[in-house]
Fold each of these.
Amino acid sequence: MNSPGKLAGPLAVLALMAFAPGAAIAQEPSGSPNDTTTLEGGQLPPPPPEFGGRISEQALQSTPWWPPRVVPPEKAPNILLIITDDAGFGVPSTFGGVIPTETMDQLAAEGLRYTAIHSTALCSPTRAALITGRNHHSAGFGVISEQSTGYPGYNSIIAEDKATIGRILRDNGYNTAWFGKDHNTPAFQASQAGPFDQWPTGMGFDYFYGFVGGDANQWQPNLFRNTTQIYPFKGQPEWNLVTGMADDAIDWITRMHQINPEQPFFVKYAPGATHAPHHPTKEWLAKIEAMNLFDDGYNALRQEIFENQKKLGLIPETAQLAPWPEDKIRSWDKLSAEEKKLFIRQVEVFAAYAAYSDHEIGRVIGAIEELGELDDTLIIYINGDNGTSAEGGPLGTPNEVAFFNGVNMMPAKQQMHWYDVWGTEETYNHMSAGWSWAFDTPFDWFKQNASRLGGVRQNMVVSWPKGITDKGGLREQFMHVIDVVPTILEVTGIPAPKAVDGIEQAPIEGTSFAYTFDAANADAPSQHRTQYFEMMGQWALYHDGWLLSTKVNRAPWEAFGAANPDPLNNQILQLYDLTTDYTQSNDIADQHPEKVKELKALFIEEAKKYNVFPMDASVAARIIAPRPNITAGRSEFVYTRPMTGLPQGDSPLLLNTSYTITAEIDVPKGGAEGMILTSGGRFAGYGLYLLDSKPVFVWNMLDLERIKWAGTEALAPGKHVIEFDFKYDGLGVGTLAYNSMSGLGGGGTGTLKVDGKEVQTRKMDKTIGMILQWDESFDIGSDTLTGINDEDYTPPFALTAKLEKLTVKIDRPELSDADKAKLKQAMLKASD
């Protein structure tokens, strides 16, 4: 980096006056085009400097002056921040697991292993905390955006007073990029209409390559470069996002280095692995199959991981395993031969996905090494944003979308239909929760369970050859993902800004763990002493080794019942001394009632401070609750030309309602085919299209059944009006106000008409009540990504007729006073 030149005389005085006090410029600019400077804090961006040269009427009598280019402090390293998805403590080989994670192993050998960094128990809340350094409710992410509600702690909006680490580093001279999962853009701001301030490029990341939402089909993802949807997989049947993302990251890092080798980079690297769907390549699946890692079942796997962790010195010899949850998940020896065969396939695909992702991370690190930058790159590799997911239920599922619609106990015999294609583009697969319990060893429970260490205890490795000399060291201090931002700021020498874009910044709530990089502090007490946890009504409070937690009252797959009406007080409280009880196994609440009282009071204090109230224990009900998307309050939608890529959260919702779709088209000579309107995809959705000039309407019911209305006569050339009218029999989303799911997914009658004449009428006994396939879009005139009916067409299936007008009218049911009273009584009875 170029140092600013020193000035003398009157010009020096001008230069010193060039930046307003709020800019806090550290060096004096000389006016040379080569000048650089660092910032000392204050406001971002710094105010524009006053001109420091001299202006006369003629250039020959004037003195030019250039504002200095802002650069990071001289010794600021590159930063690669990696966070994987849905992976518990016992997943990677680095921490006793059986799944080979060679990249993490190598980084651990060269750096440090951390065994006590904690998450929030859910993905986007953890990620909001990670990039802001604030607790997830402080950052507006008490839950995922798809469950957001109109309270500051739950609206899924990262407020402007909480600038991300990307924004801070970018304004201080870093190149910044975000690869992979972005689950921090509100679902109601994810369309082409924006706004884009909550997208990565609006939060301080100059470049984004990834998907928006909780998960993605890795074979055909809903993929963006910055804010533009892209389709690099088209025409490449073996293409997979895990590799595609690594390729793009390598290209970007290399390109930035070639342009300016002296400018450091900050990369957030967030692969979709191992969130469902589990989509590894066939080569990686073959590698894992050949290892025969899981033939003895999940009970034996749990014990094996536990013993490995003791041998590695990761957990105390005195650590205990909690009893197997037989009331929730049957032991391996009680399964049928068919179930065992299916479950082994499920977990081998999961393991292949994890190993494959770790390998591709290694390719990115290898590229950094080839550039000669590895020694001066701080790598933080966090295993999981929460514990392993059990959202596949005890039996697993070939279609995770089914889980989110309440179908989570599909028998093994039925699932065997997908056995040979498990993990391919034909499945949106998840594994049995028995494996998830084992992968959270030595702890128990899962993702979503914020009161158990299995839901919130992660591990990570940190490597920085120039900054860490205690190679292979172990660190056991209590930490939380909110500690990452202050650590990065301390290491780079960049202070947290007092104001960004004129907005005063809220304090960063995390605590730097940079002190642990020093071997002398290997056993130093943790500097993070107190931390609350809360997720969907389950909560805990850590303080100086004590853990107060609520007894688990809901497994993750139990999302559709009545919620606890008072999650703060209507709880069984448990108390653990983690200094002697490593695995949260021995409840001593009865022995220390005063400590229970003290810690509950402290939890309430923390909850008030960080926007946890009002607490809400509902799960599925919040998915379909009204929120301020661009369709809110509208009942009629009109389109006059093809359009694709409108995400589910910003498109007309045809669930739990009556509706009419009317398409005015002009069929050319020779007939027509193609998609008129579709939403969703292979795993849940609907579509109105022409097949051999005949109108067809299809509901894809979670890839389990396809209900079809079809015309028998081809449309003659010329203008036609095709209409699909559906009369819904259920009570609709109004039931959610009373915390009841009884009015959702009801039946109804659909009628297909052509030019006003009835073609076919069919009754549906039930409909999809919660959500369509979320990584697919609302498309007009063609079908992006996967199709809703593979038997009839292959995307994009462009419409060859002329679309003149498409109208969607929605008639949502309203509850009568009698219905409201009845539902309120049902809710009160369910909560008793």
Amino acid sequence: MRMQTRKQLLLATALLMAGSTSLQAQTAWKMKPVAIQSRWAKEVNPQNALTAYPRPQLERKDWQNLNGLWEYAITTADGAAPYNFDGQILVPYPLESALSGVKKTLLPDQRLWYRRRLELNPAAGERTLLHFGAVDWQSKVYLNGKEVGGHTGGYTSFTVDVTDVAKKGENILVLKIYDPSDRGVGPSGKQVLNPANIYYTPSSGIWQTVWLEKVPKDYISGLNMTPDIDKGQLVLTVNAPAGYNVEAVALKDGNAVGKIKGKSGASLSLKLDNPSLWSPGNPFLYDLSVKLLKGNTVVDEVKSYFGMRKVSIAKDDKGVDRIFLNNKPYFNLGTLDQGFWPDGLYTAPTDEALAFDIKAIKAMGFNTIRKHIKVEPDRWYYWADKLGMLVWQDMVSPNHGLPEGAKAAFEQQCKETLAQLHNYPCITTWVLFNEKWGQFDQQRLTEWIKRSDPSRLINGHSGEYLYVNEKLRSPSPNAYVSADLTDVHSYPNPMNAIKMPGKARVLGEFGGIGVFIPDHQWNMNTAWGYIQEKPGALKSKYAIMNQHLQLLEKQGLSASIYTQPFDVEGEQNGLLTYDREVVKIPFAEIRKIHAPLNKDMGTLPAVAAADADVTEPSAIYSAMLQEYIDGKKEPEFLRKLAMMAVQAGDKDGAAMAGDDYFALMKPPYSEDDLRYVMQVTGSTSDTGFAIIRDNMDAIDKAMGARQSTVKMMNLIYQDLIAPSVPETNANPDWSAIYTAVKPYGAPGEEIYLRARTIYLLNKQDKEGFKPVAREYLDKYGQFVKLDEKKKIEAFMN
């Protein structure tokens, strides 16, 4: 730690201890406005922020939840620890989320600080552990002005032993966070600073539960559990200091059905007579009690659970390599779950909301979830175990451009993910890479994961072959090396993966049918999907896709993953809306569609969501337009009319209704008004464009870094550049284009330089390219994605 930072922290702590700063007043928090929100958001308040025990497989009674109101501040990268903080934030909701009460974007050249007061009562012979479920991305932890630990990696938990610094009474906890999102070297998943299409709003800082735990001086730090149904046993290792005895008891319905004694750190075999097997149709879980003993004295005790199941690749009765569950062929009928929420982003509003997603997916008749480019809180996997859902767990992909340090950061995150999630029976498959996103050393890493966890399948590369509209986008000469599966992505219609000896064939992604549901949109400007359908046509289109899955299954397909269960921000290709309020095909009907491929549904959970209105959206808009013509001009009606016009493709109607609404707006504009302007403005000639241009700082404060700039750039390109560059061999007058975009300032210049750079790159005009590309990178290189920057620089050299 720099000496200045250390002194600043100590002084700030002293001021707090003297009572000069008020911490955690319970009246200041309020959820920020958001386009749509889930039904659970209204249940959240500072007193009940995710109160459930956060680690169900290693549970103790003596713990303290630290979720609630903390203080936060944002400083420059080299800024000292702040004396006065900016306000309050509701932990564990990420900084950018509405539920945090802050809703600000953290930029790469900034640092996020957290602070709160702790009341501690340490006792002799006990350790005080401070646990963090996840903090994105790099954190340093200080207690009473002293650095006590930290962590790098946004998706896995870490623990800091604060015993030596903790004191009786009041303690001051401070965190310093660095999170460059997609501009850094660490895995960031689908988070980007400029969200659009299949990439979404970032989640910076604390986004899972923070909690304190008292443990004995020597204690059980973890369990490693691997079921072996062929031998009727659980292979168990109790992680604790060497030399202790351990005792583990398996319980079924409260009765002991297996017991083992041994030594800490040793591999133990807990035998079970006629074990009950875990599957989606019968998700039976055993309770487990584990004690750490010194003689006959119990030193430490934890509660846990486990499930007995086996996943493997084997030949069916026709000699076809298939996925087997519990020694029988088992078709993995799955869906691609991103794990985003409109109100909490990476963090579900409540534990009930967290469980709802799995319940809804099960109620639709799926038996598998591919958890896509995200690691969830432990309780998500607990609910998957309890409800009965197979999980394909993606590793969080590295920065696609693989800057220096990205490979090491990715491998470390993978290592922590494997260790943290090993015990959950729901996880049957590890997915290493996705569609060449940051792919490297595939064979080495695939074999490493297989050695690390031979009890599960390894999908070395999901979508190494990617087809869109039956055209192959990414052929691969060394596909699926050392993996258990061959995996193809095919949009929109399903197809089979290639056949290779000893490997099951799976369809890692397909579908992506975009369906617009009025009044349930994060972004009214887009209904992104690989294809578009009206609500009334979705059921038949989806049914036909699933009938083709049945045909492919007969040809050897072992699994399918549909994109996706829920809309996410600009993507509207979910089977439920982003707010989880409307199911686009009724639950009973979609289960019927799935039934031929999922014969193991078991007990179905009760879930509530409205069925989609299958009325033609353009008919709804036409009726509203007639009301407008007949004189209806109320503000809320005009807002909705403009947004419906965007979805109906009526640009003139959208501009007309938008202009009428804008005329009713008065500056200074509210965040809600600015978001609306950003949604409905579709041209540089719209009144909304001038509002965006004149309120860029306010828009970026409300919506995130560069949102106004990117919006203006897109409209400038659409209206003033694209018409002059209809194809690569066109010969545009770049001087005239520059004259047209120059009045729009930096956004006009940036999109002009970007468009001209890409045009010359595609044309392979190296002589003309160099000066334009150099100016582009010199002025705006910080906003260019690393992989694109590499292509530009490679052509320059």
Amino acid sequence: MKYFTKIFVLLCACSQLLFSQSKEILFLTGKDAEHTKEWDFWINGGRKSGSWSKIQVPSHWEQQGFGSYNYGRDYVTYGKNFKFHDETGLYKHKFTIPNSWKGKTVNIVFEGSMTDTEVKINGKLAGEIHQGAFYEFKYEISDKIQFGKENILEVKVSKMSSDKSVNNAERLADYWILGGIFRPVYLEATPKEHISWTAIDAKADGTFRSDIHLKGINSANNIKVELFDAENNLVAESRLQILKGDTVKQIRLLVKNPKLWTAETPNLYKVKFTLNKNRKKIFQTEEKFGFRTIEIRKSDGIFINGTKVKMKGINRHVWWPETGRTVTENIDVMDVQLIKEMNMNAVRCSHYPPNKSFLRICDSLGLYVLDELAGWQKKYSTELGKKLVKEMVVRDANHPSVIFWSNGNEGGHNFDLDAEFAKYDLSNRPVIHAHHKPGNAFNGIDCNHYEDYYSTQKILEGEDIYMPTEFLHAQDDGGGGTSLADYWELHWNSKKGAGGFLWSFVDEGLVRTDFNNQIDVNAINAPDGILGPHREKEGSFYAIREIYSPVKIDLKTLPDDFNGTIPVENRYHFTNLKDCRFEWKLVNFKKPFSYEFGFDIVTTGKAESPDVQPAQKGKINLNLPENWKENEGLLLTATDSFGKEIYTWTWKLKSNDEISKQFSKSLIKKFPVSVVENDSLFILKSDEKEYAIGKKDGLLKSVFLDKKGKKMSFRNGPVFVSGTMELASIKSFAEGQNQLIKAIYKNGNKIIWKLNPNGVLELHYEYSLSGDYQFAGVSFNYPENYVINAKWLGKGPYHVWKNRLQGQTYNVWQNLKNSTRTGQSPWIYPEFKGYFDDVSWLQLDTAEGKITVGTKEEKMFVRLFDFYGIYGAEGYPKLPSGNISFLDAIPPLGTVLAFNINDKTETLGPESETNHLNGTFKRTLYFYFGLPDLGDENKQFTMPKENILTD
């Protein structure tokens, strides 16, 4: 025990010794949005202005109750008066410095401050005012501080810059404009002789180079460089001699057969730099890095480690509703995990460099990063831009995840800055221009924004690689996963297609401290995300997950001769499918009249992982048991080599005809049926229930559940949602124990009502269409405010569009009623309203009782109530008549951008064309109103007496 105690003391001593030789950090603010420190604060305008108070730092002062809010597009509204949004905040903070720092170089570091920042230490200017909000900057203050005494830090921050180019590049933009010291501030102390920064270039062939930037070299005479793998094994080392006054030295090493870094295999190494005077350590620092080679092969593609890679990317703002761009490492981790959960491999840091922890996490979890210099649609001046490029690249150059530098966005490119990146990036990464006009390719890559499907085809036939840095704008429910399948197939199968970056990751909703903490998305400006502000998942999230799945399975329904073999394509770039796991489940689904949802697992098993190389095709043999057909559903889950689920596919094993027979089997009691009529109605009767059918149109007019007049307000259907309904003839007749009413219309369409002794009201309808139609099928009316929830057997739980059917799986789902409008408060998902896919049966729980509807035929869509995909001056796309519909075809959805509005979606690709219909469509629906007597074996499902409406 004494031995281990001695070892522990020795390790602690060594740790202290190492710490004293390395950079020491003293935080003056908190480290993130959750860990802040209180400073003194004064602001000249807006809320709480004109007097000193306290503020938590780091933060945006708006989120602390100071100043006023503005969105970058306010300049469109206010024009020259936009300047009134400028606010100036004064910060004061007292700090002491350890005596042990005497004789060391002391810097004060700001990781980000919005935006012009003047710093004073003990009344003395630390240096020139820093301009540019998103960049780390520092001042040496060794000669301005006092040891053993209190020091005073004063910081003056102007929300708008005195440099017009900064405002043009950063502040007059399509995002929230906030003020204040929003990232950490700290002091760093180093020995006078130290390594100030390093630039690393580690190639896939194992060559390692580093520029080692030195400061104050006087007595130090060598640098030791050691490379370690992930298990901390030393894999290479060397010493480099240095001379007094040296400011930069380069070292070269070679590692044999290194484990390479890619987004699929994020293998990291560590390099340790030790500055020595003979054998005495003067200073030590270390960096993580990855071996990987980036190439742009003109007219071919983007290659990582010699393999062509296509970007499955998304644009991401640094954002959290309560704290704006002041975030935490946990938020960064969550965001990277969510991006990877969508089976994406890339992220664009729009429109500025992110906080440092985000890039570290992209390194370790594996994402390709496009790191962007700000410049929303206008550029920095050359003089200022050169400083900001240096600050950005020096901070970020050693991250293997960063594979591109982006010099501004949509016209915010200062061409004089293109050559600046390589001055500080030893690996000389490619520089791109994220633009929105054709013909602006740079470095062999065209990044043009928001091209439609057919113009994309033309670009891909040209000279340049095409990688749109923004496409399928996801405002409201449009864009995102909608139409993505067509775009992705286009890029995947094109030689010059390099994938792209969807716009965007989250709805940029801000908690307004001036409006009772309501979340504000600034009308149509900021709800552009695949997720809500707190990362609530929209339907596109799951569609993207399936579309971008590197295990590609296209089998929509199981063929009649299915033998347990599933075709598969490997859409990984570096991973063999034998490194993934495949597990299946056979399940039985919950029944319509039970009070449960989901499924029961009957049995599970593992499939042998097929040996399928990247970009190749093969088969998965499930090895199902002989009796697999006796079950109702099959699930297949693919898991990656890190144990993360890639996707779960589901197939139903029973036809709707078989399922509808189960529907009837639940109804054990039978009653005689009859019909009576008056001048305007046929009234079908069974037990105490009555169904009134109009003689003039053949539509259901009313439903009565008992002799006391308890009414169900389901009525006015089936109305054909496309075509006319001019009645030609109607008659009532008996067929065995059933009573029927048959209506024929002048265009040949027909409706047949049939009341069965078991209480099922059956509806058979036929209609013919020839042409292009947004939707096809029939509708009914029912008051939306009476509905409590919906339960159904089918795809779900999110609604779909014709061009976004992906991502929804087959199950018994249940959604509580909500009025969520995608992209707007309160972000309750799944949305209750919408089109739902492949429904076998639906049960609405209402204030009047239950309404249960089943179908005999396959592939029925259900429309629930009134909703729109895009909310402009009007809502789009247009809706069928009525408010509950049973459909054979539903509309596609476009994006908010002009070329797709007004329901014109066909430019987005084949899936986005309107429905081309030609023929006769037939469907049988089964209705049951109320709750049946399910017999003794189902007594566990009995419920309290149903609610009835009262005044």
